[in-house]
Amino acid sequence: MKKLEEYVRSIPDFPQEGIIFRDVTSVLEDADGMHLAIDTMQDLVKDLEFDVVVGAESRGFIFGAPIAYNLHKPFALIRKKGKLPCETVSQEYSLEYGTAVIEMHKTSIKPGQKVLIVDDLIATGGTTQAMISLVERLGGEVAGVLVLIELAGLKGREAIAGYRLDSAIVYEGK
In this protein, which residues make up the domain named Phosphoribosyltransferase (predicted)? Predict the structure, then answer.
């Protein structure tokens, strides 16, 4: 059986020279790769107590929903601004070239619930910090953050210091 890292396609010099883009679509396009990714991620948090899984649009949905399903937990969505139909709470955060806003329904997290945040990747930690802020503003407690890929050279782990971060794959560079 292949290692999980072997399913990730690495594309040099994208989106700019000197960057190695870690493409998770190659994991998803292989049934064994996707199965291994979900199982590996889920195994990383087997000791963690949480009530609800939260995932960010769109790849957080892909990895978070099956974990929630397997563990019989509810799954709450974090989406781009303007995509959710009910009353929301929003959080602006910085991107490399500008800002973005994410939202979740105000009813997604109940005060005191322990939350597992799931995403495909952590780089600088900006999106993850915004997700943590949304959960905490709704009264939730972040039990942990779970990602398929961590780009350690971009220091996302440091940006969310004080929160548990589990990564299925860690790349030392950017």
Answer: 32-155
- Is residue 5 part of the annotated active site? The answer reads no
Name the 3-class secondary structure at 154: helix
pTM exceeding 0.85: yes
Q: At what angle do helices 31-44 and 59-70 cross, to 10 degrees?
A: 70
CA separation for the pair 138, 103 (Å, rounded)? 11
Element (H, E) at 162: none
17, 49, 96, 172: the catalytic one is 96
Strand partners, 117: 54, 145
pLDDT tens for 77-120 read 999 999 999 999 999 998 767 899 999 999 999 999 999 999 99
The one catalytic residue in 22, 59, 79, 157 is: 59
52-56, strands of its sheet edge to edge: 88-95, 98-105, 75-80, 52-56, 114-122, 141-151, 165-171
Active site residue 96: yes
Q: How far apart are the first and last CA of the chain?
A: 27
